[in-house]
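Quick illustration, no need to memorize.
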Amino acid sequence: MSYLTNTTVDDLARELRGASRVLVTTHQKPDGDALGSVLAVVRACQAIGVAAEGWVVDPCEGNLRSFEGATHVAHVHPRRPELPADAFDLAVVVDTGAWTQLEVIAPWLRARHDRVIGLDHHARGDQVAARRVVDVGCGSCTALLARLVDALGVPLAAGADERGRGSIAEALYMGLATDTGWFRFPNARAAEFALAARLLEAGVDKDAMYQQIEQSSRAERVELQGCALSSLEMIASGRIALMRLRADDFAETGAMLEETAGIVNIPMEIAAVRASVLAVEDTQAGVIKLSFRSKPADDSGTFIDVNELASRFGGGGHVHAAGAKQQGTLDEVIARVRAAVG
């Protein structure tokens, strides 16, 4: 079945208004857009008097979690999860529609399929949500959720504390800024800049957010970057950069799995590189995680569609940013990547 919109944002807003208690979840290892989306929906529900809480599967970067504030988000370990209680009459899945990214909570969602709604901006997905809105034209899932907040009639500044933190606008901006690479990626178009302006007017402190997310890393993460770069190899006639991180790299540097975010982008600084792939050995999950990134079209109009490339490994995402998971050893998966792009 096709992964397409089958309802409207207004209809989803009405469902939220009619709910008593809402669970909001997203893909495992949430990035800024995923966590920002969860926070935005929870805060919007609270603003209309509907009880809501987030439920996410770690790992999740501490720099991102610092923006949760007083918003209730349950973080669970992927190997020792505590599934939600049955007290929710509506579940909202944001920033994904793929069962492979919802493995831990999948049994709980499947048992309540008629009570699950979804909002996503990815091109591929499954029948996770009975009613969903999918808009691949949005630069982030939070860009889509801004329309939901408007449909609910909630002010973007709702939820802010005395310092201006904890608002819906803050959560929306976190997703928008991180998923567009701080407005550097091709998905940062006029609409995204227009939304950013609205969110800044609602009180978002963009400089403080950038510093907290991008300039507050531990030294161990920078050492991990060095490990990745030391493994750098050029394949496909130098058009694709391939890096790897072994379990030993994490042990030797003291870095954590969630600190790999953004490392895949580093080789994109090389002029000849059109795409970058990072393979990470995740011994906790027993898989090799693949991250794919690519540059926009060059002067000839050509580019590498990493969404299509990731699909060959059972994953997906966007044209210029995607991910996948593979079984096998790190060397075996690296060999598959070489074969796929050779």
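The radius of gyration is 19 Å.
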